[in-house]
Amino acid sequence: MLAVQTTFETRLLLRNGEQLLLTAIIPVVLLALLTAVPVFDTAGYERVDFLVPGILALSVMSTAFTSLAIATGYERRYGVLKRLAASPLPRWALLLAKALTVLVVEVLQVALVCGLGWALGWRPHGSVLAVAVLFVAGTLAFAGLGLLMAGTLRAEATLAAANLVYILLLVLGGVVIPFDQFPDAAASVLTTTPTGALADGLRDVLADGAAMPWGAAGILVGWAVAGFAAAARWFRWE
User: Are 62 and 106 in contact (CB under 8 A)?
Assistant: First the structure.
């Protein structure tokens, strides 16, 4: 049941032009524009070396949080989830299938962002395993929060809130602006957000060649556990 539902969810997502714009086109365009235009200081990094990890984190957020929350919110509104609730599919299988669908789409995103980054002169460092762990932990963290939002708010409220969070974390989550550009108190809080932890962790590995950033991974795992626990507790099918 889990495999069938995951395949179905993936097909739906890939057929949605608006979702593809959010998950594939916007991150690539941002990377190209911000690499070409020196808008801000990059904290001693080469511009593309700083931006690629941040844009990868943005890609995970756009798919695992924003896109997932909006799509699930409207499925709930139109009664799709209510019908699924009457099927033999357990609630945990639906939630996990949506998270696995996100991982499938992220393979496309990574290929696009890394391909453009390579063309712009980016050369990654560090452990592939560490990057994979960060991606999985980040995906689960964002997916849990996205499902919690979609399962508790009205579809219109989910649409507005998910897009607002996306914009705020794009600016404040260490994606395109280094944390040292913010006051110390604010930076210490922003680094504990899922976007901040994922962007910082990926930058540590891909730009600095560091080993597993356990602090960032721990923050992401904490968000994932809290998000999925809350979603499993309060997610409403209708």
Answer: no
Q: What is the pTM of this model?
A: 0.90
pLDDT in tens, 152-185: 999 999 999 999 999 999 999 999 899 988 999 9
Residue 238 to residue 227: CA distance in whole angstroms: 19
Q: How far apart are CA 45 and CA 220, in angstroms?
A: 24
Q: Indicate whether 80 pLDDT > 90.
A: no
User: How would you label 63-73 residue by residue, b for 16+ Cβ within 10 Å and e otherwise?
Assistant: bbbbbbbbbbb
pLDDT for residue 48 is more than 80: yes
Six-digit token string for 11: 């097909």
pLDDT at residue 81 greater than cutoff 80 = no
pLDDT for the residue numbered 134? 95
Q: How far is residue 47's CA from residue 19's CA, in Å, rounded to a whole number?
A: 28
